[in-house]
Amino acid sequence: MQRGVLYGILAGALWGTVFVVPRQLPDFSPLLLSAGRYVMYGLVSLAALLPMARRVWPRLTRADVVALVKLALAGNLLYYLFLATAIHLVGIAPASLIVGVLPVTVTLLGRRDHGAVPLRRLALPLAMIAAGIACINVDVFTAAGNGGGDVLTKLTGIGCAVGALVCWSWFAVENARYLQRITHFSGNEWSVLWGVVTGALGGALWLAITLLPAGSVQADVAASRWTTFWQLNLILAIGASWLGNGLWNAAAKRLPLTLSGQMIVFETLFALLYGFVYDHRLPRPLEIAAIVLLVAGVSWSVRRHAGEPQRTAHGDGIVPSADPAGTGTGNGNAPTERRRTAV
């Protein structure tokens, strides 16, 4: 479990960088930011896939492909499209605080999954996390310098941030469940396949953008800005997407869903930290309080999980699980064998 927690923290540190790049590229549309990032991610993943293609390809099923397309569309393209739009309209802090509700939404969605700790034991840690998010809300909408933009712009930005929250909540739950259900791919192999599929979708989106009338999606920018665009997207492709997703899949393989969901809080913390560095300022008192509450809440939840016997529903009763890692492969919990059709 400790290794899974470490992987989750490192994934959050890498994912936090995605909040800064849209701020650095305000002259590029969110559609281009999403397409460009995932085209680069697809190329990086394709390079990683080539050495393992012969052993991975025969194990790929139609069900895997369908799952990969759904996860890539919701967890990558749509999520980042909503997030980039929110950051353009309302800034890093409001976007990160709304997406920061993920530990609560994912925990609630996974409350009946294998390895889940009863919600009554997580009530206080979740309350601390909610209090931390509330502190960020109060600070963002009351501190001086946060009043830019009209009401419609702010509402649109908040709506896009909520859209990102919905996409990632669904993705986090479905990806963790699928990873714990399958045994024919490692976390790294799944991440590489996921990246290739995401790259194909990103390429299709880029092609669609080029077919639209000039200027309808993206205004003209200097050649030097395009160089910066591709450089930053390459950094995101390697760091946040390829390595970050690989670390997250490794964490999801080792942690129950209620705990892996709360690891996402570190994405919020690192996004705020990077935002402070980018703005060249120290956090305000309410921001410090939020960080302390979020870290304390997640730490408390980790201790709750470490001290709780993993249990899983069995018929009408509850029986102890023989698989403390939460992978669904322990004795008495082997996943039902399903027919696999090679693609």
From TrEMBL:
Protein name: Permease of the drug/metabolite transporter (DMT) superfamily
Major place of residence: membrane
Keywords: Membrane, Transmembrane, Transmembrane helix
Transmembrane feature ranges: 36-53, 65-83, 89-110, 122-145, 151-171, 192-209, 229-248, 255-276, 282-302
Topological category with respect to the lipid bilayer: Multi-pass membrane protein
Subcellular localization: Membrane
Protein family per UniProt: Belongs to the EamA transporter family.
Gene Ontology cellular component annotations, sorted alphabetically: membrane
Source organism of the structure: Paraburkholderia caballeronis
Region spans: Disordered: 308-343
InterPro entries hit by this protein: AA-Vitamin_Transporters, EamA_dom, EmrE-like
Residue intervals of the EamA domain: 3-137
